[in-house]
Amino acid sequence: MAIKVAVFNRKGGVGKTTLAIILTQIALMNNKTVSAFDQDEQNSFNVSMSYLRDEPKFKDLFTLKTVLKKEDFDSSADWIIIDCPPSFNERTRLALRNSDFIVIPVRPDMYSTMMLTQIRQAAGDYKKLFQFPLVKVGFAGNIASRLASERITDKGYITIGNLPLYSTIPANISSGRKKWWSVGLQAHARKPFKAVYARIELLHRKLQELRRKKSERTNDAPDDYYDDPENPDVSTYGLNS
Ligand SMILES: Nc1ncnc2c1ncn2[C@@H]1O[C@H](COP(=O)(O)OP(=O)(O)O)[C@@H](O)[C@H]1O
Ligand SMILES: [Mg+2]
User: Fold this and answer.
1) DSSP 85
2) Residue 182 domain-assigned?
3) Is 134 helix (H, G, I), strand (E, B) or coil?
4) Buried b (16+ CB within 10 A) or exposed e, 50-70
5) Ligand 1 atom showing the smallest separation from residue 163 Cα
6) SS3 for 70?
7) 190 lines ligand 1 (CB under 6 A)
8) Smaller CB count within 10 Å for the chain: N or C?
């Protein structure tokens, strides 16, 4: 079953697209098949993916030109990686509704972490829509980021890694034009991204296990896991432990 990840924050410039690109590259490097979805009008994930489309493991690329249907998310790929726009539009909602995880990059600043409160509030308003684990990636490096991390944990998010705020990410890597593992970023700089990738894989395995147990208990289809009226506040499903 595909690992479905929507990379989202209502704040722009926090590293959503960069993370989506690098996760795609790591998956391909690990011999996993990937379907990539660009839901942002900025189109930069799509442009970056055009450099990876020749990779044999690259399966599908969905751009804004495609009107997406729910079935498009039932891909047989190992990973589905969706780059969302910095807004709660219909495309975002479709992406979030059809993902296992939202990965929310935040920077250690008030405005990108403020969005976490908003997303939680939206989760209250749209229970059914947002009943899946919320996951975030933070940027490590200074006191502000540590304080931000503490606030985030309080809000019930799962921290899946701290990415260094690099002084620069070479444009050819950020754009996907060069395979990031072959140039530029040194091994120590790749490590935090690989750790985030591995953490998502692990959480997905746990999530599958939770779904399996739930379906054994109730005879529900495994995908009904999120629609549990008995347990409305299930944002992390115990995955935090
Ligand atoms: N970990 C990081 N360290 C330093 N710069 C980064 C990092 N991640 C992304 N960037 C840079 O930040 C800018 C915005 O990144 P981008 O991925 O386009 O954000 P978003 O998709 O959220 O708008 C780009 O110039 C990118 O190279
Ligand atoms: Mg972007």
Assistant:
1) P
2) yes
3) strand
4) ebbeebebbbbbbbbeeebee
5) 1
6) helix
7) no
8) C
| Ligand nearest to the backbone CA of 44 | 2
Task: Identify whether 237 is part of a domain.
Answer: no
Average pLDDT over residues 99-123: 77
Task: Confirm whether 147 is domain-assigned.
Answer: yes
Name which of 66, 59, 17, 14 is nearest 42 in CA terms: 17
Q: CATH number, domain at 83?
A: 3.40.50.300
Domain that holds residue 23: 3-226
The preferred substitution site among 16, 137, 174 for testing ligand 1, maximizing ligand atoms within 8 Å of CB, is 174
Give a yes or no: residue 233 inside a domain: no
Torsion of CA 14, 157, 38, 5, to 10 degrees: 140
The reply to whether ligand 1 has any atom less than 6 angstroms from the CB of 165 is yes
Distance 216 CA to ligand 2 centre (A): 39
Cα 42 to ligand 2 centroid, rounded to whole Å: 7
Quickly tell me which residue has 């595909």 as its tokens: 2
Structurally, how many domains does the chain consist of?
1
- pLDDT tens, 206-234? 888 887 887 787 665 544 334 443 443 44
Interval 138-197: pLDDT, tens: 665 555 566 666 666 556 677 788 777 776 666 666 666 666 555 445 566 678 888 899
Contacts of 149 (CB under 8 A, 6+ apart): 108, 138, 159, 162
Answer yes or no: is pLDDT of 114 > 80.
no
Cα separation, 148 vs 94, in Å, equals 28
Average pLDDT over residues 31-59: 91
